[in-house]
């Protein structure tokens, strides 16, 4: 793994002061903010606090994704032949200047030590300050949002900051909520190509390559913990190259499974009346279930989740009901228009009882993906 020595940063501006007094007051930097405003403030904080780094090492071009836990920037590494990189700014749950371990960083470092999978993003650099952890990875995926309806979604962000030589720099960054992920690609197909569904040959490649990335993590004792369209990056459409992003919920299987990263993808074994204790659950089973939901949305004309998921989220349906209602098969609804082999695979990936669910190796061996 390549690790840089970053140049010293200039002191932060008064707006983002990190004095001992302000640290005691707490995560006030983001108090009461929504995800978009939180992301805007984080980017301003980063480019102001680390002005030298973001002018001499990493040239930021645009904001490419936001989420509950952080914001992702597209940049070039000026010290490495202008290599394209992604910089994820992760919000710390507590304001701290100390080097606290972070699950995403730990997961990247553990998995990077074992012949890094070509379907997981490669970690290139990391550092932190009192409010954030910064992860630099390869930049992967085509900017689908620039062609679809998402291109007008958010207003650009303009930032002015001063370097050590007192030169004032101003940058305007395009701001996308997600630009290279599967969700943005689906929007691109709908808004620019007039297509309502992803072609079947592309679906097969997307699921296969995502499963290969998961298999790598699973074989090394980790589960991803948040498999969804927004965390699957696509490089091209005709023969899509796929990488899995966001290891913020990635954990070692020995920790058990207490929650899944996205509520909408919660597996049956985590429901309110589940007979399983969280410590005995294997998160790899949940990853397969979540990937099954991704497959379902790709096959579904409008890209929607099964109707049962709404009832699961409002707690009107639990594990016991799911087990008794359909012989242990998850109620996916009408799939009469789906490919027959895809339906067979879907049923195996979404079995209600986790022990009966397919492993990722079985998914990869299924005839639908061969």
Automatic annotation (TrEMBL):
Transmembrane segments: none
Keywords carried by this UniProt record: ATP-binding, Kinase, Nucleotide-binding, Serine/threonine-protein kinase, Transferase
GO biological process: mitotic DNA damage checkpoint signaling
Record's keyword annotation contains Cell inner membrane: no
Domain Protein kinase: 58-369
Keyword Methyltransferase: no
One Gene Ontology cellular component: nucleus
SMART domains in alphabetical order: S_TKc
Positions of ATP binding: 88
InterPro entries: Kinase-like_dom_sf, Prot_kinase_dom, Protein_kinase_ATP_BS, Ser/Thr_kinase_AS
CDD domains xref list: PKc
Record GO terms (molecular function): ATP binding; protein serine/threonine kinase activity
Domain of life: Eukaryota
Name of the protein in question: Protein kinase domain-containing protein
Organism from which the protein derives: Chytriomyces confervae
Lineage of source species: Eukaryota, Fungi, Fungi incertae sedis, Chytridiomycota, Chytridiomycota incertae sedis
């Amino acid at each position: 793994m390549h690790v840089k020595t970053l140049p010293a940063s200039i002191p932060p501006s008064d707006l983002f002061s990190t004095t001992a007094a302000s640290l005691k007051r707490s995560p006030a930097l983001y108090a009461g903010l929504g995800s978009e405003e939180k992301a805007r403030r984080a980017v301003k904080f980063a480019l102001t606090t680390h002005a030298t780094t973001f002018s001499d090492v990493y040239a930021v071009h645009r904001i490419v994704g936001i989420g509950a836990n952080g914001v992702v920037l597209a940049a070039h590494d000026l010290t490495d032949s202008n290599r394209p990189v992604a910089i994820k700014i992760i919000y710390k749950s507590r304001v701290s200047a100390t080097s606290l371990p972070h699950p995403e960083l730990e997961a990247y470092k553990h998995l990077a030590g074992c012949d890094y999978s070509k379907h997981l993003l490669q970690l290139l650099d990391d550092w932190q300050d009192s409010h954030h952890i910064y992860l630099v990875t390869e930049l992967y995926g085509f900017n689908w949002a620039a062609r679809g309806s998402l291109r007008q979604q958010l207003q650009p962000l303009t930032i002015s900051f001063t370097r050590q030589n007192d030169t004032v720099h101003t940058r305007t960054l395009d701001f996308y909520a997600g630009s290279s992920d599967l969700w943005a690609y689906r929007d691109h197909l709908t808004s620019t190509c007039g297509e309502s569904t992803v072609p079947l040959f592309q679906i097969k490649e997307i699921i296969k390559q995502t499963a290969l990335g998961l298999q790598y993590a699973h074989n090394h004792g980790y589960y991803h913990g948040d498999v969804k369209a927004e965390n699957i990056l696509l490089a091209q459409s005709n023969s899509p190259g796929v990488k899995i992003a966001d290891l913020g919920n990635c954990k070692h299987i020995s920790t058990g499974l207490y929650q899944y990263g996205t509520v909408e993808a919660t597996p049956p074994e985590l429901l309110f009346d589940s007979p399983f204790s969280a410590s005995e659950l294997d998160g790899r089973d949940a990853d397969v279930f979540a990937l099954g939901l991704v497959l379902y949305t790709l096959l579904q004309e409008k890209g929607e989740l099964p109707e049962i998921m709404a009832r699961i989220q409002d707690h009107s349906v639990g594990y016991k009901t799911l087990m008794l209602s359909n012989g242990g098969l998850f109620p996916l609804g009408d799939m009469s228009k789906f490919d027959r082999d895809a339906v067979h695979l879907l049923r195996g990936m979404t079995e209600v009882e986790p022990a009966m669910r397919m492993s990722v190796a079985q998914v990869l061996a299924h005839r639908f993906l061969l």
